[in-house]
Amino acid sequence: MSEHDPAAGGRAGGGPGADVEPDLDRDAQPCGTPTDALLDVASGEPAPPDLADHAGTCVHCRAVLSRAEELWEPVRQMARQEEPPPPDLVASVMAAVRRLGREPLHLVLPDERGTTRVSAAVIARIAEEAARRAVGVAAVLARDTRAELVGEPEGGAEGGAGAVGVADRLVVVALAVVTDLSRPIPAVADDVRARVARELVGLTGRGGAQVDIYVHDVVVA
Amino acid sequence: MDANGTAQGDAALVALAREGYSGAFEELVRRHQTRAHTLAVRMLGDRHEAADVVQEAFVKAWTGLPRFDDRAAFSTWLYRIVVRESIDQQRRRARRPLPVEQDVDRPATDRTDALVEQRVREDAVRRAVRALPEDQRAALVLTAFMDLEHAEAAEVLETTPDAVRGRAARARRALMREMGEWA
């Protein structure tokens, strides 16, 4: 190791770093070895061959290595320990998940001959297409919102743009709409609600639909 | 099951969970809860806060499942959420003193001098880790405590392996010097 001063090193007589007080705060040891390099080795990083050869005989390096390994030992011990989670963690998480109401991802259409389930994504798509036909709607932002498919079993729905839920016997849809300002916003909203509700009730046979609208943006011609 | 097998099993569970099968997600929680909790404890130095953070992280994972990139391992994605939640939590209580961890799990007769000393050292480690800058702390915890390779940690932290290597090295050096003050 060319940068080391052999004269500053020497052999430790009575064990690692004997008679040498390790100094971890200085940038380099008297032998020229960067202290950081020794700390890296003490914490488990592989030592470059020249450093390994030198440190084996240098009292300063051996003293620092010995001290640093001692300091690092609690970290090694903690790294071997796992921290058991609270026994009720799974139950708590799943209770929170159920409160979010994302479980009814399917609209269930019961029938004497079996059950038909319609994905919430399909409901969202139907609503999107219907809303897009309303006058005053420039765009409906529901395409990439499956992440926000949140249903509230007690009624109502919440979530981001295009959220869909199934509340008892009511289909709940939330849409983000971009309007072109060709009509007053309440009129656009009424039109969207009427079209979406008509389409959903017609296609699913459910008794009604709640359509929540978020006017997300406006385009000016 | 090896790591690869676990990852494949996770992928199937993720697919089912995305379809709304909460039972599949519950199995994911069971599989990963200990590692996620360990990560949060090491990031925060506080078990009570860690439990809250992990619960919140799993709930965010559930709501974010549709955005999950299938090319990544579920564990990588989950760790990313845990790290972010932990950092957010620490920012919220930035100036609050670190609570003293109570030795409640062991009977008093077992609290030997060696155990007390070990507790003191572990407490010094926790304090030193907590004092690290966020980016260094995350890199250190993932590599030194969670035993992730630099590439894996880089994926969790959305950076490069070299960046992780550098941050972890700076963190290790700072940690040892800080602990030297405590010892």
UniProtKB/TrEMBL annotation, chain A:
Any matching Pfam family: Asp23
Annotated region (Disordered), positions in chain: 1-50
Top-level taxonomic group: Bacteria
Protein family: Belongs to the asp23 family.
Name of protein: Asp23/Gls24 family envelope stress response protein
UniProtKB/TrEMBL annotation, chain B:
Domain RNA polymerase sigma factor 70 region 4 type: residue ranges: 123-175
InterPro entries xref list: RNA_pol_sigma-70-like, RNA_pol_sigma-70_dom, RNA_pol_sigma70_r2, RNA_pol_sigma70_r4_t2, RNA_pol_sigma_r2, RNA_pol_sigma_r3/r4-like, WH-like_DNA-bd_sf
Family per record: Belongs to the sigma-70 factor family. ECF subfamily.
Name of the protein: Sigma-70 family RNA polymerase sigma factor
Domain of life: Bacteria
Keyword entries, A-Z: DNA-binding, Sigma factor, Transcription, Transcription regulation
Pfam families: Sigma70_r2, Sigma70_r4_2
Biological processes per GO annotation: DNA-templated transcription initiation
Natural source organism: Pseudokineococcus marinus
Domain RNA polymerase sigma-70 region: 28-96
One GO MF term attached to the UniProt entry: sigma factor activity
